[in-house]
Write a structure and sequence with these properties.
2 domains; binds 2-acetamido-2-deoxy-beta-D-glucopyranose; alpha+beta; 218 residues; Jelly Rolls; six-stranded antiparallel sheet; five-stranded antiparallel sheet
Length: 218
Amino acid sequence: MSLIKPNMIILFFFIIFLLNSSSSSNAAVQDFCVGDLTAPEGPAGYSCKKASVVTSNDFFYKDIFKSNQNFPPINLSLTYLFSQQFPGLNGLGISLLSIQMGPGGIVPAHTHPRANEVIVCIEGTVYVGFISTDNKAYTKTIQAGDVFIFPQGLLHFQLNVGKGQAKVLAFFGGSSPGIQTLAFSLFGNDLPSDVVGNVTFLDNNVVKKLKARFGGTN
Ligand SMILES: *[C@@H]1O[C@H](CO)[C@@H](O)[C@H](O)[C@H]1NC(C)=O
Ligand SMILES: *[C@@H]1O[C@H](CO)[C@@H](O)[C@H](O)[C@H]1NC(C)=O
């Protein structure tokens, strides 16, 4: 009689499968995979820069609060550090960004289709929240040292409700989380206004106004 029962073998293979699928990083075969941005990005990220040309600078980014994207009308500055901006993250399954908002600043409702997010408030007072798939809102007002979670794929937002500047750091469980911002997606496109109105239940004149604001056509 064998000591190993068939269901133990299945369990064994299941554990191997889980271990494999949970290691999203290339660390299984190499220490790191600094992205080679000159080659196209595939489903698993960028291909690796030759280790012989990798230096400390590939793992270093100077000042995450020196923003690389500014949105003056909504008093928002972002610094994205996804694998495209910070290739040292390629394949490691993590990334981050900084958010700075002036008074009245807004991070519009958006989703990250490929990663969970956890935010840490560094400065200011920020009203944050997400909406679950059963349309329940989970919100909180956070201040320096406070943490909040946005589960993958769910619509979420942030508002600076304090009198001064607000700073937030966001960390992602993926090196290429993707961003889809609701207003830009709905009103920055070239679908006919009628169709946008049909699928959003908004009046045509409202759609046209929003298309003008967000750079949409038709
Ligand atoms: C944006 O922030 C600046 C200060 O950083 C403030 O003077 C201004 O009133 C804010 N604008 C809006 C629309 O809230
Ligand atoms: C879509 O919107 C247009 C213009 O508002 C309207 O005439 C049309 O009937 C709508 N189509 C549907 C299927 O509701």
